[in-house]
Structures are given as C-alpha cells and as structure tokens.
C-alpha cells in the first residue's frame, strides 16, 4: 500500500511539473532578449556572457524547468513542440557550459587538451543525463523523427563560425518561420557562404561538410540544396545555372567565442 502511494505521489509530481512547463519558453526568451545582440546587419549575433552570469539564477531556473519535464509528457507533444524543446535545451545548456568555465577564448578550450565539451555528460533531460552530442545527434537528428536539416541553423555552438544564436526562444507556433529566418540570415553572410562565379563553385561553411548528408537526404545532393538557395547566397547577376557543373569548397571554421566586446 505504501509503495502504491509513493508511486502515485511520484506520478502526480511528474504531472504537475509537466503541466507547469511553459512551452512558449518565455523565461528563456527574456534572457536571450537581454543578453544577445544581432550584429553585421543581422547575419550574426554576439552574447554578453558576463551579464548572463549575473542572471545565472534565472538561467538555472529555466534549465530546471526543462529537466523536470517527464519523458511521458514530452512524448505526447506535437513534433514542432518537441523539436523546439530540444533546440532550446541544446542552446541553453551550451550557454550554461560556457558561463560555468568563463572566461574562455573558445568552447573547445573547455575540458583541457584532451577533453571534448560535446562529450561531457551534464544535461539532465527526459530521465537521462546527456551530452551535447547525444542531445543533437541521437535526438534532434535522430533519423525518421524530425528529419529537419534547418536545425543546423538553429542549434548554437557558442562560436563565431556557428549560425547565430537568436535573441528569442524557438516556439512551436513559429518554428517553421524561425528556422527559415535563421537559415536566411546564415546563408546571407558572404564571409561564411558565397558563390564564386569565376571558378563556378560554392564556398560555404564547414557545417555543410560535417552535415551535408542531412541536406542531401532532403534535396538529393548538397549541390541541389545550394542551387535552391542561390537567390540568398549569390549575386543575381552572377548566379549559377542548373546546367553548371558546380564544385563545393568548405571554408575554415572560426571557433572563437561569440562574445560581445
């Protein structure tokens, strides 16, 4: 009887945590609005990490709210709500990792010479303790679940080379719009993505080298995806044609911290 009562109380506690969770992620949006600024005409952003540290308790409260969501509750939500939840979790826990070790010149400095920040198990989420790699590759990119290549413009690795951290949370009601906007902002940055008409080749971020298969699954090839995006990537007067034999060159990635100042 006592065991049954404890199980009931545990279940009730989980239901209360789930029902209390704000799927509009207002707390995370408020933090981002205060500490993230668009730069370079909106193609990139920078983070005020010292001021984020001052709001550490608010960040921890948001992270706790994510951690308190039971897997059973998560599994019942619509795909857009689940994907927004995971993207926000990835970005918020990445930010926690950085401010825990701040000041650093790069997220890659965390863990020392032989460490790997993406393989540190520090994320309590959905009944597990996850690494950033597990959260991204085993959940956000899990085949047959979301199959959404634009997540690569949404998850943020706290680096200059990475697509911008937005100054708002991702939410289910606007997820497609936000992913499309994040894609456009990143592809519009000629320092990271461009078309060279003289050599007839795309020069793009290393992200497309690491995750080209995700785009190829949707568009048949990375080149086909980039061709579709030429109105954003290239000068209209020198845009490639579908008949062109196009090469893709991957540019160096800037791992410097995406910090302001």
What is the topology?
Elements: H1 2-20, H2 26-35, E1 36-39, E2 44-47, H3 49-54, H4 56-67, H5 71-75, H6 79-101, E3 123-125, E4 128-130, H7 132-140, H8 175-187, E5 194-196, E6 201-204, H9 207-210, H10 212-219, H11 222-228, H12 230-233, E7 247-250
Parallel strand pairs: 6-7
Antiparallel strand pairs: 1-2, 3-4, 5-6
What does this structure look like?
This protein has a three-stranded mixed β-sheet with strand order 5-6-7. A two-stranded antiparallel sheet has the order 1-2. Residues 1-18 have low confidence and may be disordered. The protein has a domain at 22-191. Helix 10 (212-219) packs across helix 11 (222-228). It has twelve helices and seven strands. It is mostly helical and 261 residues long.
